[in-house]
Amino acid sequence: MTDTVDTVRPMSAMHASLRLAGGCILGIFGAGLAVGVTMSVIEDGVLRARGGIALSIAAACIAIACWLLLSMRTRFPLPRSPRARRSRIALYLSLGVAFVAGGAAGITGHLTGDGNGFPMLFEHGPISSTLAICAIAGWLIAMGASIYWHLTLDEIERAEYEAGGTLAMYAYLLAAPAWWLAWRGGMAPEPNGVAIFVMVCTVWSLGWAWRRYR
Amino acid sequence: MNNRLKVLRAERNWSQAELAERLDVSRQAVNAIETGKHDPSLPLAFRLARLFNLSIEEIFDDGHR
After folding, report:
1. N or C: at which end does chain A have fewer Cβ atoms within 10 angstroms?
2. B52 within some domain
3. Which residues from chain A sit within 8 angstroms of residue B40, using beta carbons?
């Protein structure tokens, strides 16, 4: 009888997890280092030897990360169903766009004097209009990718997201007015849109995970 | 809702991925239907019935027969 686990997986789970974690850590470290050196070069107007070495290390880290992650292809093969394959590719592409957009936000934030751009986006303070426009543009691209990805989902996956979305909607309908009224009643600080956004996204993710893995 | 999907699939020696490919859904979707975590929509139930050359009632049982 055909088993429920139907793919040959020569790589052990521990081995695959180590490769995945190592690839992600090295990739993030390499990208961060490359962004840091780039900002330093933009600030000083010259690439010094130390910066060149750091850039080489960053390139090596990114190359090793790519190799580690690409070696996982056998562990996580693309689905055979055309719809699921399109969905998976869209997901990988959107992750790649998010990774590049994060680096771009970091550089833009530095150039516009907003400090470290990416974390600045999640704080509750003013930012320059340039960084705001770049962030909104990045968000629009991400939303476009997300809409395409949702269109490729099958009915079961869509039901999982809808379950999370319904929970998130009720979390929003509960939290936003309650916080606003509590603020007006002098019992809470001024409502923070970013905090509510993060809470709604967290509830959505938890709802999706519950529906998928229950 | 109970179903005979796993048995029917095994009779044809299809993996979940193969069945998912024929239905154009994800492998996780096939697993969710087989384990009863998700009841398929009517269009998907019809696709399953046509694929196995059976009626929907011969694949799915809602316990009221």
Report:
1. C
2. yes
3. 155-156
